[in-house]
What we know:
Layout: H1 2-28, E1 31-37, E2 43-51, E3 57-60, E4 70-74, E5 80-90, E6 95-100, E7 117-121, E8 130-141, E9 145-153, E10 162-164, E11 170-173, E12 175-176, E13 182-186, H2 219-227, H3 235-248, H4 254-265, H5 269-282, H6 286-303, H7 314-327, H8 331-344, H9 347-357, H10 365-377, H11 382-394, H12 405-417, H13 421-434, H14 441-453, H15 457-470, H16 475-487, H17 491-502, H18 509-521, H19 525-537, H20 542-549
Antiparallel strand pairs: 1-2, 1-4, 2-3, 3-6, 4-5, 5-6, 7-8, 7-10, 8-9, 9-13, 10-11, 12-13
Amino acid sequence: MKKIVLIFTFVIAFTSAFAQSAMVQKAAKSVCSLTTFNADGTILATSHAVFFGESNECISAFTPFVGASSAIIIDAYGRKAQVESIIGANEMYNICRFKVATKVATLAVAEKPIKEKAFAISYSVQRPSAKALTVKTAETFKEKYNYYVFNEEISDELEGCPIVNENGQMVGLVQRANTNYNIQSTDARFYAELASSGLSSRDDILKKTNIRTALPDNHDQARLMLMMIDAQSDSLNVIGTVNEYNSRYPGDIDGYAALSRYQVNHGNLTRATQAMNECIKNASDKAEAYSEYSKQIYNVATYMPDSVDCEWTLDLAEDQIVKAIANKNLPAYRHQLAQIQYAKGDYLQAYNIFEEISTTEMGNSELFYEMAQTKSHLGAENAEILPYLDKAIEKCPKPLTNISAPYFYARGITLDAMGEYKKAMRDYNTYDTLMYFNASHDFYYTRYKCETKIRQYLQALNDIAHAAILNPREATYLAEMASLQLRVGQYENAIRTCELSKNLTTEYADIYIIEGVSYLKLERKEDAKAAFIKAKELGDPRAEEYLQKL
């Protein structure tokens, strides 16, 4: 009987050891070493990572990636692979999810939290081992995940390695605490939340590593990431992002267009041309590719006229959009053509196209505003231009936003020129409101002049003062302000404003005339005489008349 019990006990122990060994071997196949490098190729940090989620994705601590320019992993089979991109990171829990240029079986995630026992699996190409762990505490975060603290202390060979349950499912990573040596771990279920978005390039955490951010899975978010590529981005990261996008969406133009814009921002129009030629070659929608190329050329020719590449001209932009129209005669493409012709000074041709497409879906506020501008260049009277601006405002989406503000400003200027000052003021006030009372100094100077015409002197003083504050180096604003202060009897204020203006220039005769008259009103004849003498020295004929009256 004793012999039977001993044999039974031995079988149970053997079976348990065998099960643990099989579990260890299986889990160990998903563990890899991680090495990150500085820009000069020197080693920055070493740790471990675990294949997780998709077969080319890993989870590790984020710390090794801070400041890193590149990284590699070596899997359990001894194969080396480059880290391609960072999918997401969380600095608080010090975890990072990234993509690598190889595929390995991933470790399944434990769906339920562990209660007591777990195992830390070491990394080894030949002989991985398991360290038994017991849970000390488990704190809940985000209402459904656990943060574990174990009784056992951490060792370098286990940092970043997986912690698994008795079924070999991943519970988390072996993490080092800041305050003690106990092994800690963030719930593996939380790792799935680490994902990139279109705005990840602006993420302060991901800015801490120089390894590029992975393209989001969502197509719209991927497009947004391309749009967020800017002049500060690393060229290799930009190319990597574009290549990933093009491989995922081979017929789209967005990847090539983003690369072209990046090259334009860096002043390399030759490479931008190459990117757009490649775009036209591979695009499933040739018309859209030609249109995009035309837009980029137009922007350079219009806003960067001193570009060294003289081939990016308005003529070339027109040639590309004509090719787009030959593929698809869309109103949007014809609108593009009209804008190019307007920029070239071909106003009549531009107007004819604007008018033609005004009855299509392109007949929006912008189009009627452009028609008004074109009519102005064609020498039309303000009364002929006004209906187009009325139509532009009529077409504005409701409720109004600052996008509609320019149309009110333009109509206000037109009404002002027609002598319709009160109507002009209504548009000026609407513009100011839509701009959240944060318009330019030019606007406040324009409204000031209109207010003086209808004798709204208090409002006019406020606006000219506002203009002077926004552009304190413009002596004209102070001169205008002093003149109006004199006009409304604020003589001492006018003198003070003249003194401020003289801090900017002493060659402005008007200032001395205004100052002299203000002194006269205050019966300070000697001061007035000195001011008029200075105005006479500057060549103002009015000064002699005032001097003779003293």
